[in-house]
Amino acid sequence: MSLLATARERRPRAISAPGGPVPSFEQLFFEHAPFVWRALRRLGVHEADAEDVCQEVFMIVHRRLASFERRSSVQTWIYGICIRVAADYRKRAHRRRESARAELPDQEAHEDQHGALEDREARALLDACVQTLDDDKRAVFVLFELEELPMTEVAEAVGCPLQTAYARLYAARRVVEAALRRATAGRRMP
């Protein structure tokens, strides 16, 4: 089992507040790895590359942990790193196109397969709509709407004034809603 999979199984403890003590690197990893993985996926990192890019984020966290100034929460600081690493990832010309799996999918039938399929399709549709946003709007939308961070932390993480973050959020909502309407219009039966 990978370290990221182990981190996904653990429940995160309280997020470090600004000015509070900085947890150890190991604690940071286990508390924030699932958040980083989700954030990277929603910031345009292909699923096959998400663990590698997540590792890049934590390598930067490890290098910079001693210089973390505690002016923001640890999660906000880490998300700022995610934004920059995901932007670098998207600029790279050598993205992998295959989707390799280490293990075969489970063959067991779940009780509510229809509901699970609908949930998976809804997440895929939302992710596709989020990918239509430009980087600035996507970062704000993901942090506020999907990760449910307070807008003050969102603005700090993306490095913009609070009102600009709200403006990006409202613009992102309009784009996502329009994309959802277009995507679902073709699925309706007459």
List keywords for this structure.
63% helix, mainly alpha, 8 helices, 0% strand, Arc Repressor Mutant, subunit A, Rna Polymerase Sigma Factor, Chain: A, 190 residues, globular
Element layout with pairings:
Elements: H1 3-9, H2 25-42, H3 50-64, H4 74-91, H5 113-130, H6 135-146, H7 151-158, H8 162-185
Average pLDDT for all residues:
80
Rg from alpha-carbon coordinates: 18 Å
Poorly predicted sequence stretches spanning 5 or more consecutive residues: 10-16
Label the CATH architecture of the largest domain.
Orthogonal Bundle
> Please, how many helices?
8
Protein name: Sigma-70 family RNA polymerase sigma factor
Family: Belongs to the sigma-70 factor family. ECF subfamily.
Keywords: DNA-binding, Sigma factor, Transcription, Transcription regulation
InterPro entries: RNA_pol_sigma-70-like, RNA_pol_sigma-70_dom, RNA_pol_sigma70_r2, RNA_pol_sigma70_r4_t2, RNA_pol_sigma_r2, RNA_pol_sigma_r3/r4-like, WH-like_DNA-bd_sf
Please describe what this structure looks like:
It is a single chain. The protein has 190 residues and is an all-alpha fold. The protein folds into 2 domains: 1-92, RNA polymerase sigma factor, region 2, helix turn helix motif (Rna Polymerase Sigma Factor, Chain: A, Orthogonal Bundle); 114-190, Winged helix-like DNA-binding domain superfamily/Winged helix DNA-binding domain (Arc Repressor Mutant, subunit A), CATH 1.10.10. It is 63% helix and 0% strand. It contains 8 helices and no strands. It has helices spanning 3-9, 25-42, 50-64, 74-91, 113-130, 135-146, 151-158, 162-185. The longest helix is centred in the last third of the chain and has 24 residues, at 162-185. It is globular and about 50 Å long. The chain starts with a helix and ends in a 5-residue tail after the last helix.
